[in-house]
Amino acid sequence: MTRTRPLVLTTLAASLLWLSGCDGNAANGTATQDTAAPQAATSDATATAAPAADAIEGLPFASTAIASFNEPWAIGFLPDGSVLITEKSGVLKHVTLPGGEAREISGVPAVANAGQGGLGDIKPHPQFAENGIVYLSYAEDGEGGRGAAVARARLDLDAGALQDVSVIWRQVPKVDGNGHYGHRIAFDGDGKLWISSGERQKFDPSQSMQSNLGKIVRLNDDGSVPDENPFAGKGEVASQVWSLGHRNPLGLAFDTQGRLWNSEMGPAGGDELNLVKRGANYGYPTVSNGDHYDGRPIPDHDTRPEFEKPAITWTPVISPSSLAFYSGTLFPEWTGNAFIGGLSGQTLVRIEIDGDSAREAERFAMGGRIRDVAQGPDGALYVIEDGKDGRLIRLAPREG
């Protein structure tokens, strides 16, 4: 049966952007939108201050480049307004704002830096001001191959070091390959730790409760499993799981009502935004609004009502890298909106939420692949570009 999918973009240029997201490995069905586009190499792995000038032409707000980094991956704001930036190679930077002065933080665990793997997300504990604890995700080597891990550590800013580092969660099992780690981190209002876990391009583990691949995981802040999790008592791994049937969930964030959403990459088409529900199964790889890269069809969500449907799907894809909800005052008209960073789409996508429904409201052309988006303590939006010399950019209303 031939399926007709709704198109978000209909131009030839949009189709080319979609194709540019793949890594050229379509023959074996493991192509990915998350491969970095070729960029000029740099031998300087340290952050460099960028001029305080308008960074991107044509935006309806001011964009100021603060600093540049070597393959940055995540933004983590601290209560004092400074920011932690991860670099995929395994480097963690502490950056002061607004000047962009950066220094390296030592003590990062060894990372497996290959493909999509490396140092990933960084999040301070909700009580960081009192306990100084941070959480970081990364790819690590081990028996059977590689997998994501999340470590907890105390950040000593005076010493410029992570101390008392301990691993509190790992993907199970470790497998070969370097794709679809997911490993975004979020905290809810009760201090519970949430982790998005990709299916590592292995498809079937998304539906297996013997594996935490292709899942959204909920833990206590020390890595233990809450008794009230939906599959608690059904096995050590299953007890971690909040939802299943995910592919490559690279965005994880709570809205202004305290509800969890995730954005994830579909295969050839079918990127998703999901409202994450307790015990829900989102269907991958049994259903998807995209198809396999080798051309094999996957039934749509509409064909299997027992699976949870996405709030939004995108074909052509935007390659969603990240997700943030806006609650600041600089852009009052955007309060409660979601923002998704696009890799192959090279966009920042604004989403309006209406109850359990969502719709794309606006798309900003950023002129580069957006790896992460976050709201700063000052109420501005911050994005970081993917790849070599990826810039941290502040987005705020224009003065006057």
From TrEMBL:
Record-listed E.C. numbers: 1.1.5.-
The UniProt record lists the keyword Oxidoreductase? yes
Question: Where in the numbering of this chain does the Glucose/Sorbosone dehydrogenase domain appear?
Answer: 69-394
The UniProt GO MF terms for this protein read:
oxidoreductase activity
**Is Magnesium among this UniProt entry's keywords?**
no
UniProt KW keywords: Oxidoreductase, Signal
- Report the top EC class in one word: oxidoreductase
Report the leader peptide range. Answer: 1-26
PANTHER family in UniProt: ALDOSE SUGAR DEHYDROGENASE YLII (PTHR19328:SF75), HEDGEHOG-INTERACTING PROTEIN (PTHR19328)
> What is the recorded name of this protein?
PQQ-dependent sugar dehydrogenase
